[in-house]
C-alpha cells in the first residue's frame, strides 16, 4: 500500500499542470540569402507555472534558463512530419528556454530560446514540442498538447527567395 501511495505521488508530480502554452516561429537568418545550406532562426517562446518553474530577476539578468521541471530539460523540438529526406539538414534542438519574464502573482514564468539551424534548400517538414501537462481545463485535470510549425525552405518562384 505504501508503494502505491509513493507511486501516485510521483506520477502526480511528473504529470503536473506546469505548461501554459507557447509559440514556435522561424525565419531565414538572411532574408536575401540564396544557396544551400540555409541558416534558419527558430524562436520558441513558452509560458509555465511560476510555482513549478520559477524565473527570477537574477535569472533574467544573467540570461539563465528556466529551472527544469518534470524532465523538460531533456525534451526537444522534434520532427513529426515529412521527416527524413525532407528534413535532411535538421537535428532536434532543446526546448528549455531562458527566463524573460515572470509574475508570482499570476503564477507565470515566460521564457524564450533562439536557435540557428542549417537546413538544405527545399526542406519541407514539421517540428513540434509535445507533452501532457497543460494547465487544468474544465473537462480534465491535465491535457496532452502539441505546438508545431512547418519549416519550408523552398525558393519562391516570384522573387527567388526562401519561403517564410
Brief summary:
This protein is mostly beta strands. 11% of the residues lie in helices and 42% in strands.
Topology at a glance:
Layout (H helix, E strand, L loop, with lengths): L1 H13 L4 E10 L9 E12 L7 H5 L14 E6 L11 E2 L3 E6 L4 E12 L4 E11 L8 E10 L12
Antiparallel strand pairs: 1-2, 2-6, 3-4, 3-7, 5-6, 7-8
What characteristics describe this protein?
4-stranded antiparallel β-sheet; 164 residues; mainly beta; 2 helices; 8 strands; disordered N terminus; signal; elongated
Give structural notes.
Keywords: Signal. The protein has 164 residues and is mainly beta. The chain has one domain (17-28, 36-152). Helices cover 11% and strands 42% of the residues. It has 2 helices and 8 strands; from the N terminus they run αββαββββββ. The chain has helices at residues 2-14, 57-61; strands at 19-28, 38-49, 76-81, 93-94, 98-103, 108-119, 124-134, 143-152. The strands form 2 sheets. It has a 4-stranded antiparallel β-sheet. A 4-stranded antiparallel β-sheet has the order 4-3-7-8, with no helix packed on it. The radius of gyration is 19 Å and the shape is elongated. The N and C termini lie far apart (56 Å). Mean pLDDT is 82; it is low at 1-16.
Q: Which range best describes the helical content: under 10%, 10-25%, 25-40%, 40-55%, 55-70% or over 70%?
A: 10-25%
What's the average pLDDT? 82
- Taking the alpha carbons of the first and last residues, their distance comes to 56 Å
Shape label: elongated
What's the total count of β strands?
8
List the strand order in the largest sheet.
1-2-6-5
Strand content: 35-45%
Please trace the helix and strand order, writing H or E for each element: HEEHEEEEEE
Largest beta-sheet characterization: 4 strands, antiparallel
Radius of gyration equals 19 Å
In DSSP terms (H or I, runs of 4 or more residues), the helix count works out at 2
Domain module tally? 1
Determine the structural class based on helices, strands and strand pairing: mainly beta
Low-confidence stretches: 1-16
Amino acid at each position: 500500500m505504501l508503494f502505491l501511495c509513493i507511486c501516485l505521488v510521483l506520477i502526480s508530480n511528473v504529470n503536473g499542470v506546469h505548461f501554459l502554452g507557447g509559440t514556435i516561429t522561424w525565419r531565414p537568418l538572411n532574408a536575401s540569402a540564396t544557396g544551400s545550406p540555409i541558416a534558419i532562426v527558430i524562436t520558441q517562446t513558452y509560458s509555465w507555472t511560476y510555482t513549478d518553474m520559477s524565473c527570477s530577476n537574477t535569472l533574467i539578468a544573467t540570461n539563465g534558463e528556466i529551472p527544469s521541471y518534470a524532465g523538460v530539460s531533456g525534451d526537444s523540438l522534434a520532427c513529426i512530419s515529412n521527416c527524413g529526406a525532407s528534413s535532411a539538414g535538421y537535428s532536434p534542438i532543446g526546448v528549455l528556454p531562458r527566463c524573460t519574464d515572470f509574475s508570482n502573482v499570476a503564477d507565470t514564468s515566460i521564457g524564450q530560446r533562439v536557435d540557428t539551424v542549417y537546413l538544405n534548400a527545399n526542406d519541407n517538414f514539421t517540428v513540434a514540442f509535445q507533452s501532457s501537462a497543460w494547465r487544468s481545463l474544465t473537462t480534465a485535470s491535465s491535457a496532452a498538447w502539441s505546438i508545431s510549425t512547418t519549416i519550408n525552405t523552398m525558393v519562391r518562384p516570384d522573387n527567388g527567395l526562401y519561403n517564410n
